[in-house]
Amino acid sequence: MRLNHNCSTGLNETIVSSSSATSIGALILTFVFLLGCPGNIFVIWSILARARQQSVTTLLILNLAIADGSLMALTPFFIAYLVMMNWVLGNVMCKVLFYLCLANMYASIQLIMLMSVYRLVSVVWPKRISVITGKKTIMRVLGVMWMLVIVASIPALIYRNVRCKKNHPGYVCDSFHDTNGEVVLQYTLELVLGFVVPYGVIVVSYILILRKIRQTKFRRRIRSEKLILAIVVTFCLFWVPYHVINMVQVAWALSPEGSPKKKLLGLIWQRGRAVTSTIAFISSCANPVLYFFAGKSYIRREGLEFMARLFEGTALDFGRKSRMSSQNSRDKDKDAEVVLKDKGDSSTN
Questions:
Q1: Which long-range contacts (CB under 8 A, 24 or more apart) does 207-214 make?
Q2: Under 8 Å CB-to-CB from 150, ≥6 apart: which residues?
Q3: Which of 125, 206, 292, 322 has the most CB atoms less than 10 A away?
Q4: Structural domain containing residue 328
Q5: Alpha-carbon span 18 to 245, nearest angstrom
Q6: Region annotation Disordered: residue ranges (predicted)?
Q7: pTM for this predicted structure
Q8: What are phi and psi of 90, to 5 degrees?
């Protein structure tokens, strides 16, 4: 495929400017692909073909596996890019592939946020859980979420382009901005929508959940709590470095031209972008590994259906905890009624 682009606007430092960094990145992505692609396919198969019931949690995990599996299917393109140190797929594929990567980031964190909100409602307001567990309601929520993901990922289509590498042969697929304002807009949007807002909701949800658990006598750490908390923490660990580099690049764009600070920040984000982007890919293969360790007690008894039984058990945990909270609330109401009745009898006497 022949590419004709102006080489005068290329960059000296890009994601493929260092042979050592690209070699390490290619090895990591190869491992991620070999582990994540079959892992997410197995999760999807377990839910669609082997799960006896489709709970809210199961449906959210299914969408998360679809998002991660789609990204894993794109990994060979990026491996070839790193190995060849040259983008040969054209400008359209450059935009589309990185658009899908950004969409995966948004979809993953939004789905994890929905899991946390669902846990919050099931624990803190168990009487209202039936309002949001209807199939139509869940499908509408997921539809709105995917529409927001599609719209929020549009900057990747706008700013991603193929350019010639300056002073080097070949091409790069990278984000190019005409002004510093575009840099600030793109990466601030990713930071706010892809981390600050959803993780703010997640943290608040867990604070309220822990407060509620401390107020009840049912303090046992059930399977669903451990699994979803592990998903939240794992996603955070792999994506925080990427968002830190985003903040560094925003600070670079806002720094005065020619200042030592701007030169230092530019060096950090240019050399750190490839590493942090590769680390972020790992999050898409981590969830099947978490499911495996969470459901290993089922393997001997259930065989290949162990993961389906795990998700069913997780759904039962949610239901059990909701019933416990409801029962505890009813017990408190009964106790209050007895106290009021006793007081009324005493005043009558």
A1: 208/120, 208/124, 209/119, 209/120, 209/123, 209/124, 212/123, 212/124, 212/325, 213/123
A2: 103
A3: 322
A4: 9-338
A5: 18
A6: 322-349
A7: 0.80
A8: 90, 170
